[in-house]
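Data card: per-record layout.
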Amino acid sequence: MTALQQLNDAVIECRRCPRLVAWREQVAYEKRAAFRDETYWGRPLPGFGDPAARILVLGLAPAAHGGNRTGRIFTGDRSGDFLFASMHRAGLANQAESVATDDGLRLRDAYVVAAVRCAPPANKPTPAERDACAGWLHDEVALLRELRVVVCLGGFAWESALRLRAALGGDAIPRPRPKFGHGAELAGAPWTLLGSFHPSQQNTFTGRLTPAMQDAVFARARALAAQ
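The structure for this 227-residue chain is written out next.
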């Protein structure tokens, strides 16, 4: 078993945050009507992808009826449909769909993870929950030794990546603090930050984030990874 597999096994057993534990398990018990015959995962989510990845895709947290149901980040929900379709077009995924852990999806040169590993109420983790989960993110990313760029899906991920880069012994958080934005870029050690609007329905259904915009981010990520 690799160090990354051992870490992910430990992530799955985490119960550090009482509010998140209660919520993820409540959702898994009550279920959504459309999934009433399914067994929900209802636990923290480890990262997923290529251990030799040069591109890290950092999200906020699992969706209550997406990753919290299926057991894999961005799997079984509309956000994942949008994200992995773009990654497939960029050559980072072998298929455009992510519906279940046994669907055959494989990532190439990319690894996907959430800053907070449990589904939070209203999709809003507290600062204390973010900080409690930061150690898992730190340890997991430290094992991804080939990373060159972190694609931050939303402002929460951008802030988490800024903190993470400093915690890993890289560049300190600049002053003034760099603002998140779609296409925002912050070079530095040990990797560059690249901002992207989150592929949530609030963004994709309203046209705030289009497939072309998402594709442009991954095209830039690939260019940065090749440097």
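Known properties of this structure: Strands lie at 48-49, 55-59, 110-114, 149-153, 185-186, 192-196. The CA atoms of residues 115 and 137 lie 6 Å apart.

See the next section for split statistics.
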